[in-house]
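Reviewers of the previous submission asked for a worked example of the structure-prediction workflow described in the proposal, so we include one complete record here. The input consisted solely of the amino acid sequence. No template or homolog information was supplied to the procedure at any stage.
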Amino acid sequence: MFQAGAEKPVYECYKTNQEIVIDGKIDENAWNQAPEAFFVSQDGTEPRLKTRFRWLWDDEFLYGAFYVEDDHLWATMKERDAYLWTENVVEFFINADGSSKSYIEIEINPLNTILDLFVLNKYNARRDIKQLWDWDCEGLKNAVQLMGTLNDASDRDEGWNFEIAIPFGQVYTAPNHPPKEGDRWYVDFCRGEGEENPGHPEVSSWSPPAFHNPLSYGTMIFRE
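From that input alone, the workflow returned the following structure tokens.
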């Protein structure tokens, strides 16, 4: 089972009875009731490019809203399951049963392109992981709003926002579909700029070191 080490963040995810339209605008009143959380750099300090997020849920979906500060919007990949991590990207890691040996990975870029796969991680580290590329998160909903111009280095951008809805039925390892009050998932969310700034990458996450280090993930607690 999941092993607790250093203190990790906790996010209380509240159930909503309001409709969430996945359009990237993040303008539903329901979002104002969701706690806001922030990314930190790998050393725990405040990153240069800030990222904040909120989560909600209903009987069908886990809803995420992300505000991604970015002074240069950059993305070229439009095909599903392309190597999005080599460019600007936000990534999700969802370990719903606490085993730490398997989890879902979903990535999204400013072009609203998705990478989704299931990961087997024998050693709780990057080495010898097996990524099941044929797995798709069926019924996933996602939308992006850009505040700036994509792939134009002549100006300064503000960033990008996005909303995402993950169907509970696709999170196969979760003990309950939908979750019950007090259910705990171990999750992490992170971002990177890929190859945009070689030698000086912008990398941040909710609970570092994140990525394929499942014992570092924070906890999401579902609340009715």
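The first strand starts at residue 10 and ends at 15. We consider this example representative of the routine output the project will generate in years two and three.
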